[in-house]
Amino acid sequence: MDAVRVGFDTGPLHGPLSGVGYSVDGLRSALARRSDVTLVDYLVSFRAAPGAGVRRLPLPAALAHRCWAASSHPRAERWLRGLDVVHGTNYVVPPVRTPRLVTVHDCWFLRRPELAVGDVARAGRVLRRAIDGGAAVHAVSHATAAEVRDLFPHAAVTVASWGTLTLASPPEQAPIPEFAGRPFVLAIGTLERRKNLPTLVRAFGAIAHQHPDLQLVLAGSDGDDRPIIDAAVDALGPTLAHRVLFTGRVSDDVRSWLLHHAAVLAYPSLDEGFGFPLLDAMQARVPVVASNAGSIPEVAGDAALLSPPDDVDALATNLQRALVDSATRLRLVEAGDRRWPTFSWDRCAEEMAALYHTLVVGAR
């Protein structure tokens, strides 16, 4: 079988990496090890400095997205010649005549357009136009695929779930002195509405008096829910509010330290397209308490205690079990040991390579 030449969008690899960036990096690395795929990296940016061999579409991304949301111009053939497939790895794929594939990570902002502003809102409009124009969709979980099919009934959707990220080596010393020697519940992610952190704060408040040394650590950059989270913390009162700690964005090694030293990982999201922190916690052998929303049950399997995202009492009960019930903790850790290795980047790359070849054959 001849290698399929894939134009591969490396835009998410520029700047500080988010979950999308880590996933694109994991997929690209696995695809690069295959002989049946030849990657041709491209980037839609006027300002970014691409590395060697990267084809840059010399357009400001915001301007390109405005244009592509309304029309198929400017077309990208002049920059993406000689390709069999063009893969937009983050909701946006340029208009070209060759087969197109676009990755959809989750449908949160597509379901709630009132929360989408700026480049996020434009990406949603470009995605809709691309699907209407025949672009195939790669969904990162079956839950996301179901959402895409509901929003775009005519879309051709294929699922290839991500692999497990490799945790950085944690530093030996506590990187944040306040954490040393004290148990904490950890939540990782941007402080945005989707993460449902006010519910976690209230659940923490319901059990905190039973654990005088327990802290709640919220590790992530500020987002659109920070004022609501602050209000929830203030509502705990002065005797508990000081036990909720905000770290801001953390480095990979600090993130790893937090995961390896947490008593529990809490992941009460209103929606998730995949959920890397679930697998991260399993690698670190930390019990997981999460919601049953989106892809979380699909990724977590039997390695987490799940509850409805709006049920504070159920979340508090699960946190308490994970903290004090040694049999439950051991069961969750052992289930995680079995589960996280099943999420393989090589398996993901194999499924993506098969999809690329299917798109090429279908276009003949």
Give a summary of the structure in a few sentences:
Residues 177-337 form the Glycosyl transferase family domain. The protein has 14 helices and 13 strands.
Read across the widest sheet, the strand sequence of neighbours is 3-2-1-4-5-6-7
Distance between the termini: 15 Å
> Could you name the CATH class of the largest domain?
Alpha Beta
Question: Can you count the helices?
Answer: 14
Low-confidence stretches: none
Number of domains: 2
CATH superfamily of the largest domain: Glycogen Phosphorylase B
The topology string of helices and strands comes to: EHEEHEEHHEHEEHEHHEHEHEHEHHH
Description:
- With 364 residues, the protein is α/β, with parallel strands linked by helices.
- The chain folds into two domains: 4-163 and 344-363, Glycogen Phosphorylase B (Rossmann fold, 3-Layer(aba) Sandwich), CATH 3.40.50.2000; 177-342, Rossmann fold (3-Layer(aba) Sandwich).
- The protein has helices at residues 19-32, 61-70, 108-111, 118-132, 142-151, 197-207, 226-235, 238-241, 252-261, 276-283, 296-300, 312-324, 326-339, 345-363; strands spanning 4-9, 37-44, 55-57, 85-88, 100-104, 136-139, 157-159, 184-188, 215-219, 244-246, 264-267, 288-291, 305-307.
- A seven-stranded parallel beta sheet has the order 3-2-1-4-5-6-7, sandwiched between helices.
- Strand 11, helix 10 (276-283) and strand 12 form a beta-alpha-beta unit.
- It is elongated and about 65 Å long.
- The two termini are 15 Å apart.
Element layout with pairings:
Layout lengths: L3 E6 L9 H14 L4 E8 L10 E3 L3 H10 L14 E4 L11 E5 L3 H4 L6 H15 L3 E4 L2 H10 L5 E3 L24 E5 L8 H11 L7 E5 L6 H10 L2 H4 L2 E3 L5 H10 L2 E4 L8 H8 L4 E4 L4 H5 L4 E3 L4 H13 L1 H14 L5 H19 L1
Parallel strand pairs: 1-2, 1-4, 2-3, 4-5, 5-6, 6-7, 8-9, 8-11, 9-10, 11-12, 12-13
